[in-house]
Design brief:
With about 110 residues, the chain is mostly helical. The chain has 4 helices and no strands. The two termini are about 45 Å apart.
Amino acid sequence: MSSPNRETPVLITSAAPSYQDQLAARRRRYAIMMSLRIPCIVLAVLFAKIWWLALALILLSVPLPWMAVLIANDRPPRKAETPQRMQRQALTSEGPDTKTRTSRNPR
């Protein structure tokens, strides 16, 4: 005998993104963060005469690979909740046009 929960369909509107979608988003974030490192180094070379700005750009570019790896490997936590189930409603013969009907005047 099956339980009533197995018969009701599971709502998937609040489902988490698929693994492939999560991986693609993490790869995109990694590529963006790593692509920011090259302009920082190039700008540091261009602003070599302004030593404090060049140093700031170099110091900014040093932790970028480490941060990019940490952010790219960070997956969202799994939800430990029960799935939402669709509530079934009983079908009745009453519709929008039955409100005008009366028991004395059937069609």
